[in-house]
């Protein structure tokens, strides 16, 4: 068993004490840059660990309610040193996430809350209506002198390092128990997939640190090879996405990543004037890690930034989920991304047949192959399926989490699957996929399938058809789902109105949408709801939360 990841922080502090480890670009504070060297990161983490162990014992929960920045990194590293269970959350004033914070905090029942002096007033107000912790610590006021008092042994590999609350795309958020062995393994798997160069490659990111990909890519992965990471606040990215590209342009060997929507957003929002001075030739890997990864997104992004030196092979489709810590599979480094067109009807029947020129087609992006773990495509009978057959993706590896916090029944159901003819237990991902020519393709979520008259339809295909039917439909803000009917499920589509379609007649939009879905999918739309912007819910990683949209629809909350 390799050393716990936190042990490598001390290693780099000894071997390269003055090398930059974490650099935060504070665009919301005037653009100032703040850097922790490896020695400083280790010092502050050990000092915090001393304070934490005065208030919490091994295995007790410590919630991080801090803004994006270096103090958040120190909070996570200090919790790992102390052997307490970190709960990476966020400040209470983060727009659109109040219910998620309330639910996750109450479920975790932390004994200590970590925050910053700046965020303390908001956290204090939040805690007035939440179960009170034993103590609230401001990370930025912990004395460095305490570090010399730290002499505790490192946590064991099987100990839980943190609870990763899921984004809740198909169910209420749940805490996934990520052990020290899990985070150590997954950071190494991601680093290996990137083929990073120790102490040389740089990661440049804006992903939120409370999210699984943001946490692993920003905090954990750089520890593997003593690499530097430069990161910013997600809000700074949303305000001006060119900031992300400018940061990438500063380095000759740089890695980054984001969800599919971020690439579409960036391509649409970065002007020709903004592109002046951008040099993306140093981007080695640009991970696109939210399913489904859309071919049109990758093509549009490449077209937008090829003139800035972006290599097509830098775009790297990937697949992962919180229950596997985060990272599972990705296209190989320096391999051009692969898009394959499949026969849509055959795919709905569970077979991956390449499109032959007749009928409907579905273009899928390959997520490559797994790194350091096994992935099987499994049928309903619990048997592995051969290439070309769609089934549930099952994962086995050292990165697969221990289970769900305080939910033994669901843990057994999701993490305790037994594959016929294989040893050990497997993680049932809830995702459908297929192997074709040895590569993995993710086709959708099992719970999101629209099943009408015994035929399977993938909602993302319907959503693309809808957004192309009329300019009044806002792109990537469409949710298609099924509601119960007397004899079969019925299709409902909810779409946000675009700015260009502000004056469009809703009846005409609905007519066009119904006609397009009937033509391309041989489906009738039971109900079409055209809403104002912001009505279609999304997860913290930007995916359409179809189950949440279904609940809102059934409750009459969509207008």
Topology:
Layout (H helix, E strand, L loop, with lengths): L4 H11 L4 E7 L5 E6 H18 L5 E4 L5 H13 L2 E4 L9 H11 L3 E4 L4 H8 L7 E4 L21 E6 L9 E5 H15 L7 E4 L6 H14 L2 E5 L1 H6 L2 H7 L5 E5 L1 H10 L2 H4 L7 E6 L6 H11 L9 E6 L6 E4 L8 E5 H5 L12 E5 L3 E2 L3 E5 L12 E6 L6 E2 L3 H8 L1 E2 L6 E12 L2 E7 L4 E3 L2 E3 L1 H9 L5 E11 L6 E8 L8 H16 L3 E7 L14 H9 L5
Parallel strand pairs: 1-10, 3-4, 3-5, 5-6, 9-10, 9-11, 11-12, 12-13, 27-28
Antiparallel strand pairs: 1-2, 7-8, 8-20, 13-14, 14-17, 15-16, 18-19, 19-22, 21-22, 22-23, 24-25, 26-27
Helix pairs in contact: 1-2, 2-3, 6-7, 10-12, 15-16
Give the class from helix and strand content and strand pairing: alpha/beta
Number of strands: 28
Uncertain stretches of 5 or more adjacent residues: none
DSSP summary: helix tally: 17
Largest sheet: 9 strands, mixed
Strand order of the largest sheet: 2-1-10-9-11-12-13-14-17
Description:
With 559 residues, the protein is of the alpha/beta class. A hairpin with a 6-residue loop joins β26 and β27.
Brief rundown of the structure:
The protein is of the alpha/beta class. Helix 2 crosses helix 3 (70-82), helix 6 packs across helix 7 and helix 15 (459-467) crosses helix 16.
Characteristics of this structure?
559 residues; alpha/beta; nine-stranded mixed sheet; five-stranded antiparallel sheet; 28 strands
């Amino acid at each position: 068993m390799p050393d716990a990841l936190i042990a490598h922080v001390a290693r780099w502090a000894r071997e390269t004490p003055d090398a930059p480890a974490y650099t935060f670009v504070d665009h919301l504070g005037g653009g100032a840059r703040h850097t922790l060297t490896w020695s400083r990161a280790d010092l502050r983490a050990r000092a915090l660990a001393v304070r934490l162990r005065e208030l919490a014992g091994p295995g007790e929960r410590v919630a991080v309610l801090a803004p994006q920045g270096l103090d958040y990194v120190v909070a996570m590293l200090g919790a790992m040193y102390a052997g307490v269970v970190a709960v990476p959350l966020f400040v209470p004033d983060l727009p659109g996430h109040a219910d998620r914070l309330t639910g996750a905090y109450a479920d975790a029942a932390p004994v200590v809350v970590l925050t910053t002096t700046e965020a303390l007033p908001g956290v204090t107000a939040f805690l007035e209506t939440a179960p009170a912790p034993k103590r609230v610590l401001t990370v930025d006021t912990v004395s460095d002198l305490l570090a010399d008092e730290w002499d505790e042994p490192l946590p064991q590999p099987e100990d839980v390092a943190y609870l990763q609350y899921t984004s809740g795309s198909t169910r209420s958020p749940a805490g996934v128990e990520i052990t020290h062995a899990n985070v150590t393994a997954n950071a190494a798997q991601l680093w290996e997939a990137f083929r990073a160069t120790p102490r040389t490659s740089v990661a440049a990111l804006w992903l939120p640190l409370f999210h699984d990909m943001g946490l692993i890519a920003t905090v954990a992965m750089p520890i593997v090879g003593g690499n530097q990471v430069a990161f910013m606040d997600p809000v700074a990215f949303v305000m001006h996405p060119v900031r992300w590209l400018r940061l990438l342009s500063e380095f000759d060997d740089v890695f980054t990543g984001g969800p599919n929507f971020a690439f579409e957003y960036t391509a649409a929002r970065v002007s020709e004037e903004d592109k002046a001075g951008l040099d993306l030739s140093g981007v080695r890997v640009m991970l696109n890690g939210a399913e489904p990864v859309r071919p049109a997104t990758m093509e549009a992004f490449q077209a937008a930034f090829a003139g800035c030196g972006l290599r097509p092979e830098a775009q790297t489709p990937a697949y992962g989920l919180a229950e596997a810590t985060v990272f599972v599979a990705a296209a190989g480094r320096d391999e051009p991304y692969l898009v394959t067109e499949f026969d849509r009807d055959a795919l709905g029947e569970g077979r991956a047949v390449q499109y032959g020129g007749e009928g409907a087609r579905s273009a899928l992006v390959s997520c490559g192959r797994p790194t350091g773990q096994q992935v099987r495509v499994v049928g309903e009978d619990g048997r592995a399926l051969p290439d070309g057959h769609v089934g549930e993706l099952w994962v086995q590896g050292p990165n697969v989490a221990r289970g769900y916090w305080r939910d033994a029944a669901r843990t057994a159901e999701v993490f305790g699957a037994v594959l016929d003819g294989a040893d050990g237990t497997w993680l049932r991902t809830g995702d459908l996929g297929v192997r074709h020519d040895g590569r993995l393709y993710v086709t959708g979520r099992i719970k999101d399938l629209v099943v009408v008259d015994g035929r399977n339809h993938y909602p993302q295909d319907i959503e693309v058809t809808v957004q192309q039917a009329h300019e009044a439909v806002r792109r990537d803000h469409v949710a298609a789902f099924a509601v119960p009917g007397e004899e079969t499920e019925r299709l409902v589509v909810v779409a946000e109105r675009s700015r260009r379609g502000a004056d469009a007649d809703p009846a005409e939009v609905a007519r066009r949408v119904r006609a397009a879905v009937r033509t391309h999918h041989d489906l009738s739309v039971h109900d079409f709801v055209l809403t104002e912007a912001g009505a279609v819910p999304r997860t913290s990683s930007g995916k359409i939360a179809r189950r949440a949209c279904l609940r809102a629809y059934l409750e009459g909350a969509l207008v």
